[in-house]
Amino acid sequence: MENDSLYVKGATRLSERQAGRAYFASLAIAITLIVQLVVPKSEALLTKSFPWYTDLLIAALIITLVLATYHTLFGGLQKFVYKSYFIGASFLAVGLYNFVTLKLALLQPIFFPSPEAILNVLVTDWPFLLECLAYSARLLAIGLLIGTVTGLATGVLIGWYTKWNYWVDPIVKLLGPIPSTAFIPIALSAFATSFQASVFLIALSTWFPVTVLTNSGVANVKKTFLEVADTLGATDLQKIFRVAVPSALPNIFVGIFNGTCSSFITLMTAEMIGVKYGIGWYINWQRQILAYANVYAGLIVIAISFSLIITLLFKVRDYFLRWQKGIIKW
Q1: What span, in angstroms and rounded, lies between the C-alpha atoms of 330 and 327?
Q2: Residue 110 class from Cβ within 10 Å (0-12 exposed, 13-18 middle, 19+ buried)?
Q3: CB-based contacts of 239: which residues, under 8 Å, 6+ apart?
Q4: Structure confidence by residue, pLDDT tens digits, 85-142
Q5: What does the pLDDT look like over 209-226, one tens digit per residue?
Q6: Closest by alpha carbon to 185, among 175, 172, 200?
Q7: What does the alpha-carbon distance between residue 98 and residue 93 come to, in Å, rounded to a whole number?
């Protein structure tokens, strides 16, 4: 009986801690909302006030309260409970930034706009931001596709054929480590338009890591696999596409991840220097006219969209490499 009583008490305390944790996000958001409503805007700021930040806090408070109450009554929603501390801390951090910039005006407002000014850009300028993002996505997709395909082809050739390895591998090792952005002057001179030059630079930044990792994966395929394929009478192409490439897929995906991250950097650099449209161009343009709220809004769009692309790549990887699902987490 005594053991049962201790077990019940322990379970009750654990349940109370879980409930407290679930409501932490709501509590943090409520504190931030009270500060936003009670503390007046600094008189030093002459900018117009916008309702978006307050609306966001109210919406977040309602959503987190509903989720926490659902967890308390019916259980489940463990991911939300686990992330509750992080959600609350994030809103407190943004609230602190809002307090410093909007309420106290301790930072230069032209370079450090308040959250409501940034949200106002996202709400009012979203069609143009979306248009710029679509242009960047088109540029990135073309460059990434060309870089990945050529990287795969080069990696397979130098990893499988000795002659290709002899002639091409030194060139890869010589040109590959050079940052693709170093080729900007040559690319702008060699191609007819800045769009074509940017595609080349993005493809180049993707090509090197995909080539190196594909080469490594194909060259290190277990000999027993190839011996079995020989025993079954497989041709050279069948051994490449049915044995070597599938065995090298873990390495190939690492190369594609590295190439994708490099292509993000190259995309932003290319758009800020030569291309006349895109999200990188938008940020650079707004920086030049000192519209830093738009700059921060552009950065938020980049963070969300690039994170979604990497998440999508991980989903594709998990589909093709089901036996390695969860080994590399994002």
Answers
A1: 10
A2: exposed
A3: 226, 229, 230
A4: 999 999 999 999 999 998 888 888 889 999 999 999 999 989 999 999 999 999 999 9
A5: 999 999 998 988 888 888
A6: 200
A7: 9
